Description:
The chain is of the alpha+beta class.
Amino acid sequence: xxxxxxxxxxxxxxxxxxxxxxxxxxxxxxxxxxxxxxxxxxxxxxxxxxxxxxxxxxxxxxxxxxxxxxxxxxxxxxxxxxxxxxxxxxxxxxxxxxxxxxxxxxxxxxxxxxxxxxxxxxxxxxxxxxxxxxxxxxxxxxxxxxxxxxxxxxxxxxxxxxxxxxxxxxxxxxxxxxxxxxxxxxxxx
Length: 189
């Protein structure tokens, strides 16, 4: 997948419906649905994050992969279930909550290492820090949603990784960036 590739409104709806149907099937102990193909886009190696928000906008689950290791369609299905049932920060989603969550997906471009944190563009890039055997990631939409500038984002990224808030300035800190195609049920009607 490259950053120029996009998904039509109909394709976005199909992907979001598949995620919802997959979670519902798992809750009801039924056979998981198949996503099918949309112009070959889902057969290519790809990675994504599936994010669940409660109706008030609070995070309810978010699981994904930075690096592609399987076809995108399979990765979407895997992360749909993992975000609903395996995010260690939340209890598994239950039937009563399903109608209340809003599903968002971030389909990632390939990750690339950058020479410095100065190459990170807030709102355009997702970012990964690796330092002292620890790492953390933020999707591109996190900083704008929180109203963070670059320095604030980097401080929070360090804290997420369990590092000192200023570890992003350490000479051993390494950074990678990626972009994402992001769409949500709240935007796709």
